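Lay summary. Proteins are chains of building blocks that fold into shapes, and those shapes determine what they do. In this project we predict the shape from the chain. Here is one chain we studied, written as its sequence of building blocks.
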Amino acid sequence: MALGGSQIERALGIKWCVVSDQFHFRVIVDERPLSRRGVLSTVASIYDPLGFVAPFILVGKQILQEMCRDKIGWDEPLSEDLKPRWESWLLDLKNLADVKIRRCYLPEGFEKVERYELHHFSDASVKGYGECSYLRAISVSNQVSCSLVIGKARVTPTKITTIPRLELSAAVIAVRTSDLLKRELEVQAQEFFWTDSKVVLGYINNNARRFHIFVANRIQRIQEGSDPDQWRYVSSEDNPADHASRGLTAKGLITSNWLTGPDFLWHDKLPAYDVKVGDLGAEDPELRSTFVHKTLATEDSLLNHFSRFSSWTRLVKAIARLMRCVKEVKGLVSRTNEVTSLEERKEAELFIISTVQKEVFSEEIKDLKSKKQITRDSTNRLRKLNPFLDEMDVLRVGELLDDMTSDAFINALRTLIAIRGNVRQLRSDQGTNFAGARREFLESVKKMDQEGLKQLGCEFVMNPASASHMGGAWERQIRTIRSVLTSILDHSSKRLDTSSLRTYFYEVMAIINSRPLTTHLLSDPSSPQPLTPNHILTMKSSVVLPPPGEFVKEDLYLRKRWRKVQYLANEFWTRWKGEYLLNLQQRNKWYKTQRNAKINDIVILMDNSLPRNEWKLAKVTKVYPSEDGVIRKLELLMSDAALDDQGKRVNKPVYLERPIHKTVTLVEAE
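And here is the predicted shape, written in a compact code that computers can read:
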């Protein structure tokens, strides 16, 4: 094809004639050896990104696939049966110059478009499969124009595959092409999918049958990208995708309906192919076989056996003995004739409780295992009790609260007095923003008899409404403790029984009551330990230390409950020292210049290697300014509680150098 250089431009790897506004193909066939390497080089040299000549290229791909199937070497010559086919295809390659595709989807003089339609056709054969998509435009005066947008043609896999599976694979390509065109085309178009396989239509419209994995995955992909109502039947004679599955010569491309689409797309109305797709037969090889087994069984509930025992103790002993026998048969424990231990009876009790719960609260347990919560309707018997399953799958409920009446509060106050003695004064906040249980508590406080409280030796003082800042000292303390407790118990409360939780609260109380009450004499490192609430409550000066041993997170999942409690107590200490102790020194250093440390400042030295409550006091004896004048390193004189009768040090003074971020300033030097 002889064209002037100024009339031809390159577009997407093909030629564009500016004068006629058409795409052309111009292939120069170089001399290449008649071998597998030469065939691959020639086929790959045809660049056709939109698939305009895909049926023609498919023939060359089929010849290459046969060479691969016959395991012909890269430089071996073509066989006698493939050589004439290849030479014929090479001669036809020059005829691609006669193929012309209009660049614009709409012809010149086409009136205003009323609507667009995208029509996707798919087909498959034993040699290939593919699809072609056409843009159909209808004007306001019912003019119709149809243009090829994109086409795809692929050779079938070397592994033998059934025609229905190939047809289904071609339908998947059509759906993927639809997704591509919806992203790239700047028009809103109604979509139609066409296939000449009634089997594929039956698969796509199926909702009841189960298929093998190959078919099931492709049906799922088709249903995700299209609606079953969009799929229609087209006869093989009218299906242009038939060329993408069998191949065409260059002249066949021009004379076929590949570039223009089927004739019915050029009519005013689409044909109504009323093809009924019947139900899939059980003999379809793609259907997965389903086996149904019917069994009859009579269930003898364990609860019937439990009811035969005259007492709870006898039932527990019997179940404990039975569970021991099971372990002996399995070889988990050695045989013995001793009476059951306390641990074995405890395990038997949990088994009995769990069995009864599964019978009585089966639906609630099922909900907790699947949704982690129960249904909150009026028919649920546990809806108000915050139920949960512990690590043994035993159904339990949250910490039951007493009523919020005046009597209940007085009982709680009497409990405190019985443990700690008479309370001189109680202070409370009655903020108007309280809600729920707090609001009920305030109402109960207002109804209490003040004279009755005075008989208890206690004065109850409430702050005015909306003046919670008047209780800032204890409000901050309560908030810090509550936030740490909440975060820890949210993840661990289900692993604690009542006694373990009570012990944990006592450990927390010991930590909180070990904080200093005053800064008096803190400026002297040789002075006694600072006064704490524990000194007043216990009348002892010793620090409450944790039990010996290391406690790790895995202790939460062991049966030794005391280790669970100690691990959680250490977690509280770690969180509390970070959220409360560090509040003694405001950490504004990132955006505000702070006071430099000075000689004779009294500080607490943070040491993560020491047990909780044993951080030591120290006095700054020397500072080391940096080049910018900021103090970042200190020399400290460590405090020592070992004093003689005259209040002097017994041991030699200890000086340490530490970075400033390891200290918390308590008293600033004058």
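What the prediction tells us: The first helix runs from residue 36 to 44.
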